Amino acid sequence: MVTVEKETIISTKKVDFYYGAFRALTDVTLDFEKNRVTALIGPSGCGKSTFLRLLNRMNDLIDGTRVEGEILFEGQNIYAPEVDPVEIRQRIGMVFQKPNPFPKSIYNNITFAPRLAGIRNNGDLDALVEESLRQAVLWDEVKDILSKSAMTLSGGQQQRLCIARALAMKPDVLLMDEPTSALDPISTAKIEELIDELKKRYTIIIVTHNMQQAARVSEYTGFFYVGKLIEFNATAKIFTNPSVKQTEDYITGRFG
Amino acid sequence: MEEKRHTSAEYERELQEIKEGLLYLGALTEKALERGSVALLERNSELARQIVCDDDVIDRLDVEIEEKCIRLLALRQPAARDLRFITTAIKITGHLERIGDMAAKIAEKVIILNELPSIKPYIDLPRMGEIVRGMIHKSLDALVSENVKLAQKVREEDTVIDQLNDQVFRELLTFMMEDPHKIQVSLYIMQISKNLERIADHAEGIADMVIYMVTGKSVRHQPTCPESK
Known about the structure:
The complex is a heterodimer.
Chain A: E1 8-19, E2 22-33, E3 37-41, H1 48-54, E4 65-73, E5 76-77, H2 85-91, E6 92-95, H3 106-116, H4 122-135, H5 139-142, H6 155-167, E7 173-177, H7 185-198, E8 203-207, H8 211-217, E9 220-225, E10 228-234, H9 235-240, H10 245-251
Chain B: H1 9-41, H2 45-76, H3 80-115, H4 124-145, H5 148-178, H6 183-215
């Protein structure tokens, strides 16, 4: 295992996770390096999405779940009683599998959360909309139709809008749960290019079923199987010469 | 541990086909070398000419294997052990093709030598030929059985061939100094010896690639100068 010696932004220590009596994750210890892309791969049901959702307390929303162990974000345990999950989710944003824009205008999609957070000045909001859309490489395509409904955009554009929406809250970390699985290859390529651009400012953790995508976009890869982290290593190492036999069997298609 | 099979049986079959192709190619080069020895010892130029012609088959097979590898790289996006196997196969087929070329070159020299008077019984060349054939065989056995120790052994044998080549060179040098009439024959024998030595290098190259394939570590190009270590 590679121990990440650079600046760690999120660190999980011996994390177990239960849906009721069912243990979905066992003893996951993993450090995420700042301003890097880390991919989480593994077969369906291996716990990678569950693990991703733990990182910004999204699983809190499901009844009967329980977390054991520690998840530290910049050294602070995010499951400590005094921590406000809403604040955590502002700093650790999330993009989902299917583009899920609000049925509102493009402009309002971006400003919805910042308004809730108290930004009211129109000039500030305008600037935030442009900045977020530029970062998501969508600005040039939508700058003249900001008042149009987000639902009129293509799937790929909608997904970039969702990324822009997450960026508007100025997070430190962006969690992506199979962000391109509902997109065509061109839109996928645009999102992947965007990920490459975004990692200069953000830490990105991406769950993907597409192993080639993990290989293309990430610097580190974690392989999950039946709720356990089997191997965590530099992506190039995982895809040329993984250390664990199970990882090799999975990425070469010798599974099951 | 028993190797798991790919979920895709077709992919499994394609990889197997490449492996079998390499073994067949290896067998053809061994055969060319063996017949080269016979052609030399029995002064059989017809056999030597056949070796030269048969090199075309080796060349064609080399291209075929390479195309199959490139196709798999494009269509299957292989990773890890499969990726290492396919890139290794591309290099191994190249080594075998060069071995085939050298076997043909040796056969060409044999044809010339067969027209010239013999200056001494051939002892070292057939011996080198046999060792070199064994090296090719073992390197491909190591590939199939993923046997690093066997590959290591091939690397060691390369030193033996280097020594034999030096020995042939020194012996022929004295022949040539003693009698200028022996220069022509000596030079052709030296070229054969040199070709065998180069073939051993290629067999060592195959063994190096097998070690890379199994361990993921490159053992090629050990530094020779102390200052670059």
